[in-house]
Amino acid sequence: MELEITWGIGVKDKAEELVKKKINNDDKNLTPFEKLLKKKKEKKKQKKLKNKQKENDNEESGSDEGSEDEIPSDIDMNDPYFAEEFNKTEFKKSSNKKKQDNKNTSDVDSEDEKRKAELELLLDEDDGKAHFSLKKIQEGESESKKSKRKRKLKAKMMEQRQALPDFEINVNDERFSALYDSHHYNIDPSDPNFKKTKNMEKLIKEKLKRRPSDTPVQNQVQSKKSKEEAELSLLVKNIKRKIKDVIKK
């Protein structure tokens, strides 16, 4: 009799890869909200399994403790007398009551664990991903409203500028005559409130053009120059005199 054995190399790894691929394909078809629900459901399932395992461990430890408490160590259960006594209904009732108490305690613990797990799921931050902050959302909305108002105001100002035609000032208008003649209406470009515009430059040029070029202005300039020359010559004479005095000494 001949036996033919075929070894499938890497079958386990291939099976795991296929399972992972199927899970990934299923996850791709889910929406972000469905993925979040699935993740929370898996966490809840793991918590439930842990609680169930803990409950089973408590039952096993409780049964061991019950048997140790109910049957003393120096009693031989192979003895027909003790076997008959421990099989009586009174003993069974007390044993069942103790088991029921242990079960009720474990049920309460499991309920507490369940509530705790639900709270953890509610307060869980999903591996470092923070939940929505109402305060931040409100601040963002107020900022967006402010920026929206600014954009609207800016657009409105641009529309007004485009609607207004280019204003050309008439420098020959009689209403501007005082601006050219009176010193009360001098234009000072160094003033902080001065705005350099096309029409303002026209006014300045027109004012300079109309400035009177009569002799009093020229005489003032000449008299100022002659005064400076006289002061300079006097200073030179004083210096020469002092030098002579020093040489004589």
UniProtKB/TrEMBL annotation:
A cellular component term, taken from the record's GO annotations: nucleolus
Domain named NUC153: residues: 173-201
One Pfam family it belongs to: NUC153
Superkingdom field: Eukaryota
InterPro entries assigned to the protein according to its UniProt record, in alphabetical order: Esf1, NUC153
Alphabetic keyword roster: Nucleus
BP GO terms, sorted: rRNA processing
Region named Disordered: 23-158, 206-228
Compartment list: Nucleus, Nucleolus
GO molecular function terms noted in the UniProt entry: RNA binding
Amino acid composition bias (Acidic residues), ranges on this chain: 57-77
The protein's name: NUC153 domain-containing protein
Organism: Pectinophora gossypiella (Cotton pink bollworm)
